[in-house]
Design brief:
single chain; 129 residues; alpha+beta; Elongation Factor Tu (Ef-tu), domain 3; six-stranded antiparallel β-barrel; 34% strand
Amino acid sequence: MDKKVLRGRVIPGANRGKQLGFPTANLDIPSEALPRTGVYAVWARIEGEKLWRAAAASIGYNPTFAEQTKKIEVHLLGFSGELYGRVLEIAPAAYLRPEKRYRSSASLIQQMRRDCRRAQKILDRAQSP
């Protein structure tokens, strides 16, 4: 897995993450700069802050919603606040799984809960950048 730090401004998305109970920061990063598709445990830092936060990120095409553009969406674990227009730095810590199409939103939500728990466990044992 590529360990480089990705940096991008938070831009508006479809608000699906929020609707599903997992608000995400959609980052404006060229798709060719993104690592392989899948779900990752990542460290995230809001520009101007020293603290690296635990997060889960989805990189890919959102196959459940049949999107055509590769993008990165980051869910900061335990964070609530407004990030639009802010810059985030993302440091991948672990590849969790490939992206997958789910038959229902309920199935996707269950998987997202598992992904977030797994990311938190991994990051609890890992050193931030």
